[in-house]
Amino acid sequence: MTKPRKSRAFVSLLLDVGVPLGSYYLLKGGFGMSAVAALGWSSVVPVVRTGWGVWRQREVNALPLLILLANLVGLLLGVGTGDARLMLVKDSAVGSLVGFALLGSVVAGRPMMTATLKPWLVKGDGGREAAWARLRAESPAFRRAELRFSAVWGAAFVAECALRVVGVYTFPVDTMVWLGTVVMIVTMVCAFAVSGALGAGPMVHMIGAAVASDRAPESGTVVVVAQEPEKNSSLAGSTHR
To answer: Which one of 13, 31, 87, 196 has the lowest number of neighbouring Cβ atoms within 10 Å?
Structure first.
């Protein structure tokens, strides 16, 4: 991962995890807000950030749009009922909706995580882009790996949702605010590892092999051209004799 990508990942983690977590305890402990109010205000930054991302793309991308709508609906329900636990379940609802949507896209043969995965694998390289398109059209193994990548993330989101719901109605609200973040981080780490091993990793190797095979004929041509003078010299020598 390059430095710009690492920086973007760090900023995303800070805005989506660090700011909501820190602001909840600051608003509740430092400013004396109720758990409901603190949870509501601490959710503003992720909601605004997701909304900005959807607007900036200027195109319908199902995954971020789904996350934005689920966040807004859960936030309104929590504030309307005054139930802090319901607001925490909102995060689980977002995860479950995303998870089931990903699994549904796998069943339909149109994996939603491809929009996120492809830029990381092709890296803006024309050769890798062409290799991706060819493999996706011609290689069943490549398509299976692509489906597995989204399937792993879908299953991870659903499992995280189940764990969060159990935790919300088992632990105190203040405990679950940070514990839910721990569950999310652990789930993402596991999903990265498994989806990389079953999906992204094999796809990287296949793309690399396809790019290498595309360049091989060019190298062969260079070798033939380089040997041509020797053949001509031998022929001239035999003619002279």
So the answer is: 31
Six token digits for residue 208 = 């690399």
Where do the H-state alpha helices sit in the chain?
A: 3-13, 19-25, 35-42, 44-57, 62-81, 84-107, 114-122, 126-138, 140-168, 173-195, 201-240
For residue 144, which amino acid is it? R
Please, are residues 35 and 84 in contact by the beta-carbon 8 Å criterion?
yes
- Check: CB of residue 65 under 8 Å from CB of residue 101: no
Between CA 90 and CA 106 the distance in angstroms is 24
Give me the percent of the chain exceeding a pLDDT of 70. Answer: 61
Q: Is 131 exposed, middle or buried (0-12, 13-18, 19+ CB in 10 A)?
A: buried
* pLDDT tens string 27-69: 777 777 777 676 667 677 666 776 676 576 655 455 555 566 6
For 115-126, write each residue's pLDDT tens digit.
Answer: 889 999 998 888
Q: Write down the pTM of the prediction.
A: 0.69
Pair of tokens at residue 28: 């509740």
Distance from C-alpha of 24 to C-alpha of 142, rounded to nearest angstrom: 44
**Cα–Cα dist 25/42, whole Å:** 9
